[in-house]
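protien #1 (seq + structre)
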Amino acid sequence: MSIRPKWRRRFLTGLGAAIVAALFFGLAEWWLFGSVDSRATRPVYFTVYAGESTRLIADRLTQVHLLHSSLGFIWLAERRGWASRLRPGTYRLSPSESPGLILAQMVQGETVDQISVPAGVRTSEVVLRLLADHIGTRKQYQKLEQRPLPGMPTNPPHVRNALEGYLYPATYSVLRGSNAGAAISLMWATFQQKNRSLIKELPKGWTLRRWVTLASIIQAEVRYPADDAKVAAVFLNRLRLGMPLQSDATVYYALGSKAQGALTERDLMVHSPYNTYQVRGLPPGPIDNPGPQALWAVLHPAHVGYLYFITGPEGHAIFATTYSEQLRHIARLSRNTTGK
């Protein structure tokens, strides 16, 4: 039986303690200053509110699993003198980011803005919302409106805005200070992603522009999505028979911001390729950015023979197959409105 020298036992005991200490401090450093998940790719949108303390922000970051512990974040903020410099706003963060990186973004104010694009909104309105949030410049948007992004339909003659119709209705998180191209590209990429399966359903001979243009008219004409498929049938039946679409929505678009209230006979006579009272077929391009329901309805119209419709007082469409039937509906609605 051999007996180890005392110095050797002391050395091994000290070495073990050093290893344990190194592991402990390494684990502590990872827990305080390491990322929660280095492989994470899903963004987390986190809002810092005005007047919040560093401790409260750190506690909330921990609750949404962006930090292992609030202690490292608080320590870094105090040590770097940043505790009072965290800027309010919404941030696009990730569990793959370290507490130091998250802290730096909040000090630098790298916030994102939530931009809402409702179904049926015109591109001009989307641009105004982006400009209001300091995303892009008017000159940048003007260039984009004349030059479609890769994959968008090329500009035919008389198209007012190359972007119209292809900005998918959704709520977007856009980094404040981004240029116009980044914001518009995001909306166009979302359009392509969300409509991938529907695009495969386009009938032979149909172009992307034709599909989106008709969907945009349906979007503008219909108040209740339940009517979309029937209104789609009306317009498709008219196109097949060579009848003018006679869509009031296209006249409003032709008139631009000048149109107020009910259309007049003079309005219906406006000279424009977008006026479907005067021009047969579809206008040269979309008149708004249609939502998924209208886009779907064009490819899945109701199997009906309707050629006319009028919007009732509660917003639902009333359909007719013949012009005489349409006139009766108009007369009845007029009597109900006037109380006669």
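ok now protien #2
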Amino acid sequence: MASVNKVTLIGNLGRDPEMRYLPSGEAVASFSIATTEKWKDKAGSAQERTDWHRIEFIGRTAEVCGEYLKKGMPVYVEGRIQYDKWTDKEGQEKTLTKIRGDRMQMLGGRTGGGDAAYDDGGASGAAPAPAPRAMPSSGGAAAPKKSKLDDFDDDIPF
């Protein structure tokens, strides 16, 4: 039987991403996001629970996270649960649970990231090809109407 290890989270960053680099030169971005659940108990009192999730991206998506994500920003993350086990100096076994991210999308307005998505293209790690742009007409044909988005200038690389 096939199995699935898939996590989808929407939350706010608890701190700016921490960047490091593997010996191969690949970027690694680590950060935590908070997800909050709200409900009313039997007595009608408002209750709230916040859970913190450790997130790790590797490769091009990690570079994008390090450059654009900031503390407090809302973010959408897809990935898988991963458990890292090791033995500390005192001989005690430790376990760290984290989400190894596959896809990230910044949420909110321009100050919150602008709903820009980034997917590292799966296991290949290749960056997605840029979307084709319409070429300006150079002949006698009427030029197509310009959209407000045509004048939009952004420094996000995707």
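Helices lie at 60-68.
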